[in-house]
Amino acid sequence: MKVLVVGSGGREHALCWAIAKSPKCKKLYAAPGNAGIAEVAECVKIKAEDVDGILKFAKSEKIDFVVVGPEAPLVGGLVDKLEKAGIKAFGPSKKAARLEGSKAFMKDLMAKYNIPTADYGVFDEPDAAKDYIIKMDGRVVVKADGLAAGKGVIVCHNKNEAFAAIDHIMIERAFGAAGDEVLIEEFMPGEEVSFFALVDGTTAVAMGSAQDHKAVHEGDTGPNTGGMGAYSPTPVVDAAMHKKIMKTIIQPTIEAMAAEGYPYKGVLFAGLMVANGQPRVLEFNVRFGDPECQVLMARMNSDVLEALLACAKGKLKDAKITWKRSTAMVVVMAADGYPGHYAKGSQINNLAEAGAIEGVEIFHAGTKFKGKKVVANGGRVLGVTSIGKTVKDAQDKAYEAVDAIEWPDGFCRRDIGWRAIERK
Ligand code: AMP
Ligand code: GLY
Q1: Does the residue 109 lie in any domain?
Q2: How many domains, the chain?
Q3: Looking at 180, 199, 222, which one is the last position of a domain?
């Protein structure tokens, strides 16, 4: 079959790498892709957000199956339009994508169906928001309702910071229309984990847990990024916790979505806070995490394309999905200055040598070709991914590969996986 993957990050490179291995995949395209993706797929110059452009290409090339990486085209209704044109797609409908596209929708759904999460209030007016903060009488988190490229969340230490956050979002309109409404949440202490499940509308199959490292510097310090590294599975989610997450969070959420008339298809990504043996939802995302997708793809043993197709066809019950028992890790290499200002265009060498280390795959997150050379073309540039028997083993391998890469203008965190390693 002819498959099209939408997106251009490390997540999409990992998806393309896994899909290309399927005997079912006869031709693979990526829109727009990157220099690493170009090794396994034909890249077409259409932006991921260009819903109509992608639809037109999928129709004219007679694509059989479209796998959507990022949230923007999902929230923009790409899957609805493709299905209307008779093209199968992996990802939720526009209405179901509101689970990520609107925090108020997500929180109201959880409240209605008793899915464990932080207490909250939703406000479209700054004074009412501030009254609620006074009433909460404790640490709060202030969030812009709409999509704000992962930046619309302000964790506040006291009332004054919370008031300033309201002014920043609602009066200064720092995130534009995403700040028409704000959500004020109780601060949840604990350890953060990501949990992923494949969903076909009614059936959910767990993909398992991962832990991201959002802060830019070692020891989880400095500003937040899209994610500087991840590993999977994580020891916080043992067999009992895994069961609890499926039973109290994933299953009730897909039942709730179906009951509300928006059956969920695709991957459900739950951001969780775990404290005292109890998981609570921080947020849902309607796509794979990036970089978490790299470690999930590295760990999946069975045919990824068949698993994704089973979601689109409502046939997950019959799918045979198996996982490697090993731990996978991804260390993100970013351009100097990220997540602030960074330069593009610096040359990266020795990628083939690093990628030849056994159990290592180098996924490209933001690269392009300049002649025959690979150059940096984004903030997060590479996802150095490894498989090992333990977290430490995977970590040693990932950093061996990082050290083999020659890129003086990039950096990475040297402590990915530290929580799991310190636990032992
Ligand atoms: P979100 O985009 O909603 O996941 O928020 C971004 C980050 O802010 C999360 O990954 C958490 O580290 C933190 N955060 C968000 N909401 C809360 C909360 N209610 N309690 C504690 N931390 C939070
Ligand atoms: N790595 C976190 C995310 O993709 O949202």
Answers
A1: no
A2: 4
A3: 180
Q: How far is CA 131 from CA 81, 87, 125, 173, 407, in A?
A: 43, 49, 10, 20, 51
Q: Ligand 2 centre from 172 Cα, in Å?
A: 26
Q: 108 C-alpha vs ligand 1 centroid, how far in Å? A: 17
Measured from the Cα of 150, ligand 1's closest atom is 2
11 vs 364: CA distance, rounded Å? 9
**Residue type at position 249:** I
Enclosing H/E stretch for 409:
none
For residue 102, the 8-state DSSP code is -
Nearest ligand (C-alpha, residue 211) = 2
Q: How much is the pTM?
A: 0.94
310, 265 in Cβ contact below 8 A? no
Residues counted in the chain: 424
Residues 269/291, Cβ–Cβ less than 8 Å: no
- Is 107 inside a domain boundary? no
pLDDT, tens digit (0-9, with 9 covering 90-100), for 217-229: 999 999 889 999 9
Residues with pLDDT less than 50, the chain: none
Task: Write the CA distances from 275 to 99, 193, 281, 286, integer angstroms.
Answer: 24, 11, 11, 24
Q: Is 323 exposed, middle or buried (0-12, 13-18, 19+ CB in 10 A)?
A: middle
Q: Which ligand is nearest to the CA of 213?
A: 2
* pLDDT tens-digit map of 148-171: 666 688 899 999 999 999 999 999
**Ligand 2 centre and the CA of 194: distance in Å?**
9
CATH assignment at residue 234: 3.30.470.20
Residue-number span of the structural domain to which 388 is assigned: 327-423
Tell me: the pLDDT tens digits for 20-31?
999 999 999 999
Residue 214 alpha carbon, nearest atom of ligand 1: 10
Angle CA(249)–CA(385)–CA(234) in degrees, nearest 5?
35
Buried b (16+ CB within 10 A) or exposed e, 81-107: bbeeeebbbbbbbbbbbbbbbbbbbbb
Q: Give the C-alpha separation, 100 to 257, whole Å.
A: 13
Nearest-atom number in ligand 2 for the CA of 292 is 1
Q: How far apart, in whole angstroms, are the C-alpha atoms of residue 134 and residue 132? A: 5
C-alpha 59 to ligand 2 mean position (Å): 30
- H helix intervals, 36-125: 51-60, 71-75, 78-84, 98-101, 103-112
